Amino acid sequence: MPNLKDLKLRIDSVKSTQKITSAMKMVAASKLRRAQEQAEAARPFAERMGRMLSSLAVNVQGGGEGPKLMTGTGSDQVQLLVVISSDRGLCGAFNGSIVRETRRQIQRLQAEGKTVKLLTVGRKARDQLRRDYASLIVESYEDVGRRKLSFADADRIAKRVLEMYEAGDYDVCSVIYNQFKSAISQVVTLQQIVPFAVPETAAAVEGAAVEAKPVYEFEPDEEQILAELLPRNLAIQVYRALLESAASEQGARMTAMDNATRNAGDMINKLTITYNRTRQAYITKELIEIISGAEAI
Amino acid sequence: MADKVEFELVSPEKLLASQPVDMVVVPGTEGDFGVLAGHAPLISTVRPGVIDVYEGDRVVDRVFVAGGFAEVTETRCTVLAEQAVPVAEIDRAKAEQELKDLGEDLDDAKTDAEKAEVEAKLAVARAKLDAIGAGSTAH
Known about the structure:
Order of helices and strands of chain A: HHEHEHEHEEHEH
Distance between the termini of chain B: 25 Å
Largest sheet of chain B: 8 strands, mixed
Number of helices of chain A: 7
Helix content of chain B: 25-40%
Shape of chain B: elongated
Number of helices of chain B: 2
Mean pLDDT of chain A: 86
Number of strands of chain B: 8
Helix content of chain A: 55-70%
Low-confidence stretches of chain B: 135-139
Largest sheet of chain A: 5 strands, mixed
Strand content of chain A: 5-15%
Low-confidence stretches of chain A: 200-212
Mean pLDDT of chain B: 83
Structural class of chain A: alpha/beta
Oligomer: heterodimer
Largest interface: A-B, 30 and 23 residues
Shape of chain A: elongated
């Protein structure tokens, strides 16, 4: 028969775990709201940047040679993957799914005979990928946006990516991150950022709009603006991925902690029933002993 | 002057301003340009400096930007700034300190790339100080 004292201890410990998980859930919920607001605040900039880029691209495409960031190096032999994960765990399948997708991509690319390089953001991706692919990791970032994600963080990463591109360290760069759909659903997304691809549909839509609009004047010329705009755009893309990932992380954590709290509640119920039954059994047993003792006299 | 231009100032972190105004003066890389309604479509890079927002003949708003891009159409003027601070909120002591620190950084910089980076930051800091200087004489 289970020991009453042990059961009592067990119940207490589950109760305190439940308190922790429900507190974490609430923290995640408030952080999620903030992260979502931030992601929304960043949207206008990205939109307008996209609009400007497509109108520029339309103008430059006629001119033949564009900047290397847009046309690419003409090869796709060396692939750089920027993997965005979180620094902390306890957020369900968030990091697991990122790492799984990364492994899949690495295997796919390697099977095609390509060279893969990794740049990880967040402690979790680095720790998990280091086991199998330590040699592929060229750079790791930690504590990105610990307090509040700022554009400077994204800029730092983008600068590094750019430097490596200019040094000819890779041909194609993609980011893998969790796209925020809703608090309970995050979608792992692979997005190519170098060379920059003008979104087909957007370009088509813009193309129609540009024809109607008068042609822009450029100051200084197109090429120079484009040369400045493209690195900016890269930083924006990274920033957006980081924001999405931050919102996803909090969403995933909130869901995970909600489940944990519910499970703890179920467990407490079960344990309490066992506890009560056991106690009842002890009482009955003692009564029987007393009665049979009295009858014997 | 009944026509107004839709002025938008956006930084990566948020939409800072979006309002119809009479005129904006933007510090372009190749010289300041004023935008009135009906301006020819233009895309320009922006150097570190101050954007003046005019309402009638008066300057109603002065915002410091640390470089970026401007897109002008007949009805709209959009400025994408990397960093934007209203001139009134710039702290003179802080800006001066920043300038001094960067001066020291420049001495420490070894490679050309580092130097270029610090110099770019220096230009921003100087423009920031100029912005306050100009602001105090204007009022």
